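Weekly modeling sync, notes
Attendees: S.R. (lead), two postdocs, one rotation student

Agenda item 3: backlog of single-chain predictions. S.R. asked that every request posted to the team notebook include the full sequence so nobody has to chase files. The rotation student volunteered to paste the first one in as an example of the format we agreed on. Action items at the bottom.

Example entry:
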Amino acid sequence: MAGIDRLISTTLSQVIKKKLNSDDLKDLERKLFLEHGMSIKLSIEHFHKFDETLQKKKKKI
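Predicted structure, as returned to the notebook:
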């Protein structure tokens, strides 16, 4: 199952990086790293951490 998780996380992280503007992407990457020590790709494998960071970002807007 780990191979499927890696494939999905790689593909999804590429899609996210294409869809976000550079400032939002840098902010998301920074927050993920500071709060969880993870990249976008790794945080997608641990989706609750990715989702938690996105929810915090939405509350600030």
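Discussion: group reviewed the output briefly. Helices lie at 2-19, 22-36, 40-45, 47-60.
Action items: rotation student to repeat for the remaining queue; S.R. to check formatting next week.
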